[in-house]
Every structure is written in structure tokens, then in C-alpha cells.
Amino acid sequence: MKRWKQSELVPVQVELNGVQRRGLCEPRVLLSDFLRDTLGATGTHVGCETGECGACTIRVDGVAQRSCLTLAVQADGRCIETVEGLAQADGSLCELQHALRERFALQCGFCIPGILMTCAEMLKRRPLPEDEQIPGLLAGHLCRCTGYTDLLAAVRHTVAEVRRREAAHPASAPSVGVHDA
Amino acid sequence: MRDFNFHRPASVAEAVGLLRKHSGGKFLAGGQSLLPVLKLDMADPSDLISLSGIAELRGIRVEGNTLIIGAGMRHAEVAQSPEVQRTIPGLARLADHIGDAQVRNRGTLGGSLAHADPAADYPAAIVALNGTVQTDRRTIAADDFFTGLFETALRPDEVITAVRFPVPTRCAYAKFGSHASKYALVGVMVAKTADGVRVAVTGAGPYAFRAAALETALGQSFSVAAIEALGENLGVRADDLNNTAEASGAYRKHLIAVLAKRAVAACL
Amino acid sequence: MSTTTTPTPKGPLGQPLVRREDRRFITGQGRYTDDIVLPGMTHAAIVRSPHAHARILSIDTTAARQAPGVIAIFTGQDVAADKVGGLPCGWLVKNKDGSNMVEPPHPILVADRARHVGDQVALVVAETRAQARAALSLIAVEYEPLPAVASLAAARAAGAAQVWDQAPGNVCYDWHLGDPTATEQALKAAHQIVEIDVYHNRLIPNAIEPRSAIGQYESGTDSYTLYTSSQNPHLIRLLLGAFVLGLPEHRLRVVAPDVGGGFGSKIFHYAEEALVVWAARKVGRPIKWTAERSESFMSDAHGRDVHMRARLGVDKDGRFLGLHVQSQANLGAYLSTFASSVPTYLSATLMAGCYTTPAIYVEVKSIFTHTVPVDAYRGAGRPEAAYLLERLVDKAANALGMDRLEIRRKNFITQFPYKTPVALEYDSGDYHATLDMALAAVDYAGFPARREASQARGKLRGIGFSTYVEACGIAPSAVAGALGARAGLYESATVRMHPTGSVTVFTGTHSHGQGHETTFAQLVAEQLGVPVDSVEVVHGDTARIPFGMGTYGSRSLAVGGSAIVKATDKIIAKGKKIAAHLLEAAEADIEFKNGAFTVVGTNRQKTIGEVAFTAYVPHNYPIDKVEPGLEESAFYDPKNFTFPAGCHAIEVEIDPETGVVTLENVVAADDVGTIINPLIVDGQMHGGLAQGIGQALFEEAQYDESGQLLTGSYLNYGMPRAADFPFFKVGNHVTACTHNPLGAKGVGEVGAIGVPPAVINAVLDALAPLGVRDISMPATPEKIWRAIQDAKAKAQH
After folding, report:
1. Contact C685, C749 (CB under 8 A)
2. What's the pLDDT band for C475 if we cut at 50, 70, 90?
3. Which residue of chain B has the CA closest to A140?
4. Which of B36, B148, C144, C705 is 20 to 30 A from C757, alpha carbon to alpha carbon?
5. In CATH, what number is assigned to the domain containing residue B149?
6. Helices C431-441 and C404-411 sit at what angle, rounded to 10 degrees?
7. Which CATH number fits the domain A6-85, given the four candidates 2.40.10.10, 3.10.20.30, 3.40.190.170, 1.20.1510.10?
8. A95-168: which CATH architecture?
């Protein structure tokens, strides 16, 4: 067993929801633990060890991924978005948050931060997913409270709203990026 | 998780050099399989050598009748690649159904093949399509690549750089996923090529294997009826297949026939 | 569907208000136990037994003590030396002969013997979570593995290994309820006897928030704080303080902040809660422990795991005459907090269902095994009763060649109150109404055409029903006490009006997804005639709330809500005295309506805000009659259980080639009593249905013969995902509860209770043409495929 002295910790710098943050950690530290324990961003939750529950999903350079299956050192220099960054600075909710709230899509709230980040990526896909594709795109999440019924209604509603808006005002659609880390 | 050192080489040569220097080390690709293994303390590498920043491992291109996919390409990239969709749409579809959205955003072709999970999807593709694994030092034919449960022909310090897929006439993959893990309980890839039909099965055994009886039958008549005519004579024994709480060997054997039929139907 | 048969309300009661708690959850500002960081906090990890049954020969902690960051290591010897008590069981069940059940010790760290995989053996405290976990593998525990029993059958076999020497045959108790003689006579007189044998699969609750606990000791005040992911902080304080650690309750604060789902599994007092508090004093710093998911699988109480056999006697017209049920329940290795009550008082008492069966006799043997303790999980005992009955009723209809709905209608209870032969008195219900509602919603008339369409595509289609009743809102304390409960079952509330008219409500219930902060605010706003936004609801902190029993058994509105009504009634009563003084009228002439106190027959009035201000600034005040201030507490002890009931209808399509079941229609028509917020009621229904369908189709905790958990992670314990369900159709037909002030019954568990038999009945309906007569839960693809193969083979012979 190796011993880590403070000097042997690795610096990790990320842009977290638009703010440069820096922390020191062992290379073995998971990005989820780095966010929660080192940076104090506890909005991202950890529900399992094996990468199944999806509660820890965040976006790294725009791409939804599990922060519990990513090392903090792999995120060095990257741009990270978490649930804390979804609302406007003035506290107004984003469209997706609003829809989830209006349609009673959550109960205990523990799985929701991850689901929101997967959905945020989903809304950037072009073409936008069809209604029947949406459950499959949420296959990486477990919610034990809601039976997904109202959640799916909220997400479908939001996707439909975006589609309707874009049909009315065609603009350059964002593309799905996949980054290297 | 145990301690390890982390390295981020910029080239394949540097990565290989690092692994030779740290013989207890391991390469880290997308991490979607390796990190759970480390978290469950089922492996204890001294060093992790990340392959993610290596430009040589990226890219998808078509050369003549061969599709070449860089080992570092993520499942979502393969699924959405116009080159893949145009040349081997069955492979794009397979990639689009690996794991879940988050896994597809991180996991890579090379990582999946090197990990050699018996229930992974890509092994069925490379075996059925008669692909070739290109490493930093040699090429390995698909039929020689998988050697056992989580075992491949790769040497510890060997890095997959790309996979070459000969473009088939048609191909399709049918999968019966585990409800819990989404891994394949059984997955069958059927490929029709100028040289004949290849059928590869993943999930059912210790590693992806070819189903000779199915290949012969489909070679004579590329039809659902040809598989139905085989009945139980699929050339595999239920006792030799994986037997777990979720699916017995007998059920998996049955699923091989069902999925082969569905894959053939999708090709037609 | 999603309709109710009550008119649209005018006040806050019954309005579909969005939940006020959601804002913090969707912005990442929920505060769960693991989010809390205390100054100087350390981290704990637990060495758990890898064996189902083993003697602990030695524990060598030398290497681990040298590991980086390790502060302390504790073993069962340390716990025993400190005379720490064991985890107590909250319900004493008696044997048939009147003697007490076997209550084995339940140490917070085992010293000499481990009795299930995951049993806690040692505690490591380190500077960081990673260091604590890394040190686990350095602790060398020498085990002598012993033979184990991991199933009911194994535990009952001749010569089976003994979990406890004091429990011969591994029997914890052998209990019964009902009239054996009358039942035997009824069965003898029956035209036909229908028999069934069912196994209620073992489930793992799997709240997505893993359990977490932080213990803190402050020597300056000699006081302790426990933050824990619990459904009932006061119960934990009582058990931890009085029984386990012997701490005075006034120096022990228990906080259950935001809790990420419970479903019963977070009711119980767990060893880790006691360990972090006990060890925090030893190390002089706060200690946090949070379960890894693999630990949750082997340390959270599991649910169900009951085997039942039953005989139902029917006359030639299909009337039920008598029912004899014999059940064996797996309790696991130790008695968890409420384990003993689940197969008995929460299950056997429901064996009448919604039918007039006049004679019922239930025998229950509860059995120890070398597995994780089993306790209440969403529904707790009632799903077992409903599943047994609703499968049995379908079977009886088949046996008699009767329509399965007709046989139900023929036996429905229609006169209320109705006293069952198994100790309950149903106060209200309308079982025909919910059945009719479900039939309409599922378009039963159109089913034959849909079945034909499926057939044309090579698929098998089936429809299944269950008409269930359950008992919740537990329960009159005196009755429960007479039956063995060791706690009261009332609920508490304090309503504090502030000087400027806003209100804070302190409730003894706990919300971990149920939306109490919204529902209770609506309730108080209605009662006091103030805006919903001016009501704040506080729960989950023993330092702030009155002594309450927490949230389980669908009790929060029926019992906790009733306590709130009692407290607001007291506020109004006191307000009348103050208003009478201010308005210079007789108290008897003051009426309270829409937030104002009015002199009857005049327009002279004072708003409740004005009255509140006067109460806190009592310059012109009836000081000789009432005290200043406007704050009232109330405790409400229920007069009876409440009895939600309903009909669930499920339509499935089965792929005969693979055995895969697709849910085509999920309908639930329920009577959950008065509804405060229909959105929340629908949500509770959806969640219950999802977990009930999970039990029926996907979920099962499996042990191998040696007691190793085969389904120990999300990779092999399947739970419903978004793609598994069609849109749920839920609706309500309200008959009010007659004995609580709200008329509320409870909604938290009805989905999980009613739906599993409807799913299995639908699967069997689909498979009936092939000759398949039985299938066990979960009806996995392979199981269905095998049943089809077996039926085909049988048909050929």
C-alpha cells in the first residue's frame, strides 16, 4: 500500500458551472467524490458503485456521463455542468426543471440531478428524440419513487416544446459532441 | 479503491513505454468496465495509463471495402458516424444499443474488446464481420482474438489502435439484454458476405463464438426457415453455455435460435 | 383516467398544487445526510462477514492501524466491553400456547459469530472515506465457516443448522389467528375446496439514496447528535437512547434531513446508527458512514420471503365459506425492528380481503435463516394477503367455471361497518364502484378484440384483476399494545402562528418523497384560512418537532394529518377567546370561517392574523382567561385502522418465443379516502404500482445454498426502468374514512399491495390457452418460456 503525502496529491482544475475551481486529490478519487467532497458541490448524488443507477450523471464538455465512473484526474481542464448550474443566476428555473416541477416528475428527489443532466443532453440532440425513444434514452437511470410516468410526461412535453419552437424559428441546431478526457 | 498513479500519455508509443516501465499497470480507455472493477476491489493496478488523449486512436474512415474505426472511438460516435451508418448500418445499430446513453458516451471500441466481457456486444460484431484487430505492433484476426473469459490474445503492454471491418453484404445484430444490467444474455450477429455467412454469438459462452451449424444452414439458404429447420441442432450444448440466476444454458440456447432468426429477418 | 368522483374543491384542500419541496431538489439544493459535513468529521467503513455463518476466531487489526489516515478500529469485543445493548425488536408476538417468541440478541458488532453475509464485524474510522475503505482489506479476520441455512425449506429440514440455539427448528414463533373449529367445519361443508401454494418473493427495497449516518458527540454539553437517513427520527432516538446506548433522550438529538426514499427500509434502527454515535465519543470527532450499494444489499432489511398454503371452501354458487391459511415467513438471522409483526398482525388480519368469508383461520410460523433480516417493505404483509387471496379467487372461479369478476362481486362486503373473522372492523368502502371504474378504464369490453389482434401477430394477450383491501393508518395504541406493540402509534403536531400571521407546522411524521411539506401546508391553510404560501412545514429533527412516530404504513395523512387538524382546532378555539375579547362579544357568538373570527349575524370580525398579532402583543388581551401566544400541540391516537381498497386491472402481451411480458395497460381505481392533493396521490399510486410490478415481473433476492447473495448489485437485481411501463391510468372513488377528522385513508402502499396478483392473473390469463395454470413471482421471461415448454410437453403426452 502506497502512502500519499499531501505533496503527492494531484491538482485538478475544472470549470464547474462556469466557475473555475481547483482541488487536490489522489488519482483514485472519483469525479463524483471530487465534486461532492472536495468542491462541496453536493447536488450530484451517488447511488451505486457499479454505474447502474445514473444519479451521479453530469455533463463534461457537454456530454452526459457518470461521474462515479470517471476519475477526477480525467476531468482536469474540462468544463463540468451539474444540476446546480441548470437554473439561471437569478434563480429562475430552466425549461426542463420547470416541466419536471409542473408535472410532478419527482418525489424523494435523489435520482433527479442525474436524470436532469441526461435530459439536458437529450434536448441538445438533433434530430430531437421521438416520444418512443425517450424511455430508452433514460435507460441509464433508476428512480424508485415515481414509476417514471410523470417524469416521461414532463420530458416529452419539454422535447415537444423545443421542437415546436424550432419549427417556428429554424435556427442552427446544436450538435451532439463527444469529448476526450 | 486502492491507490494508483495516473498517466496521460499523448501517443501510443508513450503509453506502451509507460506500461513497460510500470509492469503492474493497466491501460484505461473509457473506464466503464474497468472503474467498476477497481471500485469493487477486484483489481489492484499500480498505475493507470489513460488512452483517452491519444489522437492516433481516433477517427473513422473507409478504405475500399473496409471500414476502419479507431480504438478510441466511443460507442455513441460509432452509432452516429455517417461512415458507419452508410457502410455497415448493422454495426451502427449495435453500437446504439450498448449499455445506456451514459455508457455509450464514454465507452470505447478498443476498451470493450480488450476487456472482453463475455456479455459485451462488440465481440459479436468483430467475430461475425471477420474483423481484424490492429495493435501497436501487429494485426490479430477476430477468430484468434478472444481466448477465454475476460481473456484476449493481447499482451499486457499491447494497445489496440484500430479495428478493420470488411463491409458485408448485409448484417444485423439481435440482442436479448439482461433486464438488470442491460448486458447481453445472448446477442447474435449475422453477417452475409461474398465469402459466405458468419454468425457470432455473445453473452452465451465465456467469449464470443461462431455458430458453425447456423453458418452452414444460412450459407445454404439465407432464411428464417433455414434456422427453424435446424430445430435443436444448433451445434451448441446447453450445458456448455453460461448458466446464471437470470438465464440458464437451456434458455440461452433457445435464445440463440430466436435471435438468429430475428437477425436474419432484419437482414432480409 | 385520473379522475375523482368528488367535486372540484374551492379551498386549498383537494387542489393539485405543485410541490414546494421540488425547487430544492431540481436545483441540487436537497440536503441529504451524506451531503452534511461537520467540522473535524471522520469517516467510517465496516468489515462485514463474507460468510453466512461462521465463528470468529480472531481479528488482527495491526496492519490496518498502521494504514494511512486510520484513527481507530473497533470490534465486537470493544462493544461488548462497553456493555452496549443490542438492537431491540419493537413487537412481541406470542406463540399459540401464549409463550413469548424467541428474541435473540442483535449486537451492533458481532463478537463471536457472524450469522449472515454482511453481518457487521468491525468498524474502521479514518480521516477520509477512501482511507477507511482501503483499510478494510488490512483487517485479518479468522473465520471458522459453519453450516448455514439460507431458505425457509433449508431452515425447516430435519437436522438443519441452527441459527440460534434458543430457537429449535429455527422457529421464532408459531402464532395463529381466527377460529380453527369454525373454519374446519366450513371447509367440511364446502361444495368444493380450492387449494393454492404461493411464494412471496424476497425483495430488496433499494431506495436510491444509500443509508447514511453521522454521529457527533460534544463534550462541552455532554450531548450527542445523530444525522441519519431515517423515516422516523424519534423512534430511532428512543431505541438508540433507551435500549442500545443508554443515553438520556434530552442529550440526544436525531435529525433525519432530506431522505432519498425509504419504502420501509429506513424505518428500522440499524447498527450503523448506533456505531457512529458510540464511536464518535470514543474518537472525539464526528463520524460519517455511508453505505456503498453492495453494503445496502447485505445490510438493509429485505422484504417479503413468505411461503403460504391455503384452502378455500366454496359453495356451488361460488360463495366463500371458509379459509385456512398456513404461512411460513423468513425473518433472516435477527429480528429487525418490526419484523415479527409483518407476517402476523399486518398480514393475517387481512385474510378476509374484501369478501364476506365467515370463517378464517391463519397459522404463521416465522423462521430464522442465515440471511439479512427481513422486515416491512412497502405494503408489509398486506401484499402477501392480497396476492394469496386474489390468486385464490381466480382459481376458485376457474374451478367452478364461473366468471372471475362475478365470483368477486358475489362475495364483496357491501355493509359497513363490517367485522371480519380476523380481528378487523372495516369502516367504509365501495368495492363494486372501484371495480366498475377499473373495468371502464381498461376498456374491458374491447379486450376480446385486442386479444385477437395480438393473436394475429403471434402474441398472447391476457387481462388480470385484483380487488384488494388493506389496513393502514396504524393504529389505536391500546389495541396495538395489547397485541404486542412496544411503541405508541399516535402522531403529533405543533402549529405555531407567528405574530404577523404566518404559520409553522411541526409534524412528527417524516417526508422522504411523500410531499408532506405541500400536503400539510394545504391542510393548515384550509383549516386556518391563510394562504398556502404562508405555511411552513418542519419535520425530521427531534430538537424541533414534538415526539412523533414518523412515516410508514401509509399513516402520515390519516394519523399525522389528524393531529394537525386537532392542533389547528385548538388554535381556533383559543383564537375565539381572543377575538371575543377584541370584539367585545360572547365567545359562544364567535364563529371562525375563511380565516376570520366573526360575531355571528354581524359583519364585525377580526382576521386570524390580527388575532395572532394580539396574542403576541397582548396589550388589549383577556390575560385572565388565556395565555399570550398562539401555538398549540396535539397528539392524535387513531380510533381504528383505515381501509383503502380498490381494483387493479392489468393487461399484458407475451411473446411466446422468448417469454417476455409487455405491459399494455396498467389501471388502478382506488378508494384512498379524502384527497388533499391529487397530484401527490397520483404520484404515490404510480410509485406503488411500479414497485408492485417490480415484484411481479422483475425483482427477486436470491441466495445460494451456502447463504451467498447471488443478486448483490444492480447488475443482477433487476428493477423497473423507464421503458418497462405504459402510461399508468389511475383514478379514485372516494368513500371517506368514518373515524378520523379528515376522512383520509392512505395511499402510500396500495399500488404495491394491489397490483402483483393482477399482473400474475393477467400472465396466467394469457397463458391459459396453452394449459399453463401456475407461475411464481417474478414471472421472468425464462420462467414463462419454461412454463410454455412444460405445458406443450404435457399436451403431447
Report:
1. no
2. confident
3. B100
4. C705
5. 3.30.465.10
6. 160
7. 3.10.20.30
8. Orthogonal Bundle (1.10)
**Hey, which chains touch B, using 3+ CB pairs under 8 Å?**
A, C
Average pLDDT over residues C325-332: 98
Same domain for B251 and B208: yes
Q: Which residue of C has its CA nearest to A141?
A: C721
Whether B50 and chain A come into contact, CB under 8 Å, resolves to yes
Chain B residue numbers with beta carbons less than 8 Å from the beta carbon of C716 are 178, 180-181, 244-246
Q: Examine residue C778 and say whether the peptide bond preceding it is cis (omega within 30 degrees of 0).
A: yes
A91: region left, alpha or beta (phi > 0 left; psi from -120 to 50 alpha): left
pLDDT digits (tens, 9 = 90+) for C209-249: 999 999 999 999 999 999 999 999 999 999 999 999 999 99
Assess A149–C contact: CB distance below 8 Å, yes or no: yes
Phi, psi of B140 (to 5 degrees): -125, 125
Mean pLDDT calculated for residue range C31-37 = 98
The reported pLDDT for the residue numbered A172 is 54
For C779, the closest chain B residue by CA position comes to B246
Mean pLDDT, to the nearest integer, of C684-697?
A: 98
Where do the domains of chain C lie, and which CATH numbers do they carry? Answer: 427-471+640-797 (3.30.365.10), 490-636 (3.30.365.10)
Output the average pLDDT for chain C: 96
Q: Is C209 within 8 Å of A136 when comparing Cβ atoms?
A: no
Query: CB–CB of A147 and C134 under 8 A?
Result: no
| Model confidence at A175: pLDDT above 50 | no
The three-state secondary structure class of C446 is helix
**Closest partner residue to A29 among C130, C263, C682, by Cβ?**
C130
Nearest chain A CA: its distance from B222 CA (Å): 31
What is the average per-residue pLDDT within C35-49?
A: 98
CATH of the domain at B202: 3.30.390.50
Q: For an interface test with B, give the residue of A66, A134, A143 to mutate (most B CBs within 10 A).
A: A66
Contacts of A29 in chain C (CB under 8 A): 130
Closest in A70, A73, A140 to B6, CB measured: A73
Residues C773, C775, C780, C783: what is their CA dihedral angle, to the nearest 10 degrees? -70
Query: Measured between beta carbons, which residues in chain A are less than 8 angstroms from residue B77?
Result: 178
The answer to whether residue B20 scores a pLDDT higher than 50 is: yes
Total of domains in chain B:
3
DSSP letter string, C531-557? -GGGEEEE-SBTTTS-S---S-TT-II
pLDDT at B11: 98
**Minimal Cα distance from B78: which residue of A?**
A178
Q: According to the 3-state scheme, what is the secondary structure of C693-741?
A: HHHHHHCCCCECCCCCECCCCCCCCCCCCHHHCCCEEEEECCCCCCCCC
Complex ipTM, two decimals?
0.96
Q: What's the pTM?
A: 0.96
Q: B179 touching C, CB under 8 A?
A: yes
Residues B129-183 have pLDDT tens digits of: 999 999 999 999 999 999 999 999 999 999 999 999 999 999 999 999 999 999 9
Which of B138, B166, B194 delimits the end of a domain? B166
Q: Which residues of A touch C138 (CB under 8 A)?
A: 1
Q: Are B46 and B120 contained in the same domain?
A: no
pLDDT at position A171 is: 65
CA distances to B126, C184, C361, C687 from B139, rounded to whole Å, are 13, 78, 73, 52
Is B2 in contact with A30 (Cβ distance < 8 A)?
no
| Chain B positions in Cβ-Cβ contact with residue C130 (cut-off 8 Å) | 1
